[in-house]
Design brief:
The complex is a heterodimer of chains A (about 240) and B (about 350). With about 240 residues, chain A is mainly α. Chain A has 13 helices and 4 strands. Chain A folds into 3 domains: about 30 residues, no CATH class; about 90 residues, no CATH class; about 80 residues, no CATH class. The chains are: A mainly alpha (about 240), B alpha/beta (about 350). Chain A: InterPro entries: 4Fe4S_Fe-S-bd (IPR017896), 4Fe4S_Fe_S_CS (IPR017900), HdrC_iron-sulfur_subunit (IPR051460), Helical_ferredxn (IPR009051).
């Protein structure tokens, strides 16, 4: 007999061999289906400290699980799977595998900060959600968010030239996020700009986008800056 | 005699009652069944007390020497009251050492008995050497060294299980023992202080660090000493096979079964009625309430009263009680006893 209500069991816990013979008896296929237990067998004692090193996660150890954050949460009202209280508990005990299961919703925090306002222990759950999202990004558990891609493009230009070219940032951002450059708002923006006829400005923008000049005497500053940022990051997160 | 109060039991409550009676100018005869004074904090070797943080032997030691040096206080150690005759204002007590005491009033400061963890065999006490009670852990803290009794290694992880012998209908303990949450939070901090590499987990159903104990013990242990509080009532403690212990239960916040390895498991044992209470009830003619503690009289106008006139009680004899509140109640019971004597003196005069 097959297992009823398989949908209630996480797929990775359903163990099945396509062909299996035990003591001469062929039990291939669903006959050998087993369900791995849901038991939690250990805590990761260092995980809480790791999250605390991300901005916003510093106070996570204060939580006593009252549930005020979840209760006040804007996103929870839309989706009961979005439960900051629960994730904070998982962080505290280091139950990483459980957290990763919710990787596709944790980043949905809208930063309304109602949780942070209401928290009786000053855990600042909104910050914890941010810290958690950043950790998942760093670990490659979630893809890069559009804002992260924007930041990277921005920084990349600084390192290289010591300055930002707006036109180039916008162009590369749209390219890297797979968006069309012909956005309605951008067209309106450009048209209005042309209407004022700042010809020299437009020409300079065009020229700079193509030639990407460096700030005067920039030299090795970009490399040093990049190395320093990397060093700081490593010192923080190891 | 109209100027003497008989105080039974020399724990924090009894010592406080005695000191307050003599301070009012009356005499005390104190009867203690053990050979040392001080009660549970001294007999069980408690470490630092809640909430003062003073070592038990210093704090309670002061109370003991105050009574021992008091010329108006006669102490009978290793003795019990075997018979009590008479009535309020004119009691005669016969002691097990053959002495007879005449007293105008009696204060029963007979305290409690620690819950015996053997009665919850599924939690491994008596089976595994590294399963301890809070009193044993207090003694370990007093010794200044946190190690596994089985092989002397420093524990990586200690689990404290709350409500052992409390809030458990299965074993007829339907009361909260009141002190264990705070004592456990305090113990977690003491363990971390002595052994910074040891992580302490407290398994709880509710945390009842009431009043000012909230931030001073619960919050502090969590925020400054990184104690982790896990909401689970443990089902079973077993051996892991590699020298550690496995704590099994359900984490009710994750809704998942847990089987977590630990090096030491501590039972936060509760307070039972004094095991001698049936005998005390018979000898002194006082009633016991349904759990077996001494029955409290109507409290509003008969504070510290029992079911028998002229006999007062205080502290953990009535119900699970903190040391500080036992001391306050002892003073109150002393005042009630003294008021009886004072009325007698006025009548005689």
């Amino acid at each position: 007999m097959a297992i009823h209500e398989k949908s209630l069991i996480e797929p990775e816990r359903l163990l099945k061999h396509d062909s299996l013979v035990v003591d001469g008896v062929d039990v291939s296929g669903h006959w050998n289906t087993m369900i791995a237990p849901r038991t939690i067998t250990d805590y990761d004692d260092d995980f809480e400290a790791k999250i605390q090193k991300y901005g916003g996660g510093e106070n996570v150890h204060r939580c006593w699980q009252c549930g005020s954050c979840t209760n006040s949460c804007t996103v929870y009202a839309q989706n009961v799977q979005f439960n900051p209280r629960y994730w904070i508990y998982l962080i505290r005990l280091g139950l990483k595998e459980e957290i990763v299961k919710d990787k596709d919703i944790i980043w949905q925090c809208v930063s309304c900060n109602k949780c942070t306002d209401i928290c009786p222990k000053d855990v600042r759950p909104e910050g914890v959600m941010k810290a958690l999202s950043h950790w998942m990004e760093d670990e490659g558990i979630t893809g890069k968010s559009p804002s992260k891609i924007f930041d990277e493009e921005f920084l990349d230009q600084i390192y290289k030239t010591g300055r930002i070219e707006d036109g180039k940032v916008v162009q590369n951002f749209f390219k890297k996020t797979g968006q069309s450059l012909f956005q309605d708002w951008l067209r309106v923006f450009m048209l209005r700009m042309m209407k004022g006829l700042p010809i020299m400005h437009l020409m300079r923008m065009g020229w700079n986008t193509v030639h990407t000049p460096r700030t005067r005497s920039w030299g090795r500053t970009g490399e040093v800056l990049k190395a320093y940022v990397q060093e700081q990051k490593e010192a923080r997160h190891g | 005699m109209g100027d003497t109060v008989l105080v039974v039991g020399a724990g924090p409550a009894g010592l406080s009652a005695a000191a307050n009676v003599t301070a009012a100018g009356y005499k005390v005869v104190m009867v203690e069944k053990e050979e040392v004074l001080g009660g549970a904090p001294i007999l069980s070797g408690y470490a630092r007390l809640v909430p003062s943080g003073e070592w038990a032997k210093d704090a309670i030691g002061r109370m003991v020497s105050r009574v021992e040096e008091d010329a108006n206080c006669t102490v009978h150690k290793n003795a019990k009251v075997t018979q009590l005759d008479g009535e309020a204002g004119n009691f005669t007590a016969t002691l097990s050492n053959g002495e007879t005491v005449k007293a105008g009033a009696v204060v029963l400061a007979t305290g409690f008995t620690h819950f015996d963890s053997i009665n919850k065999p599924e939690w491994g006490f008596g089976t595994y050497e590294d399963v301890l009670t809070t009193t044993q852990m207090e003694q370990m803290v007093s010794s200044g060294k946190i190690i596994c009794p089985s092989d002397g290694r420093v524990p990586e992880r200690v689990a404290i299980l709350l409500c052992v012998g409390s809030r458990d209908r299965q074993i007829g303990r339907e009361w909260c023992s009141k002190i264990c949450c705070t004592v456990s939070a305090n113990l977690a901090m003491e363990i971390k202080e002595i052994s910074p590499g040891t992580d302490v987990f407290i398994y709880y159903m509710d945390i009842r660090t009431y009043g000012l104990y909230e931030d001073k013990f619960y919050w502090k242990s969590q925020e400054e000493f990184k104690t982790k509080f896990v909401k689970a009532r443990i089902a079973e403690v077993t051996a892991s096979g590699d020298g550690r212990l496995l704590v099994k239960g359900e984490d009710t916040l994750v809704k998942r079964p847990i089987v977590i390895p630990f090096d030491i498991v501590v039972h936060a044992i509760g307070m039972d009625p004094n095991e001698d209470n049936p005998e005390i009830s018979r000898i002194f003619g006082v009633g016991l309430e349904k759990h077996g503690f001494i029955e409290r009289a109507e409290h509003y106008t008969n504070t510290c009263g029992t079911t028998r006139r002229g006999i007062y009680s205080c502290g953990a004899a009535y119900a699970p009680e903190t040391i500080d509140d036992s001391i306050s109640q002892g003073a109150a019971a002393g005042a009630r006893a003294v008021a009886d004597l004072h009325a007698l003196v006025r009548k005689a005069g």
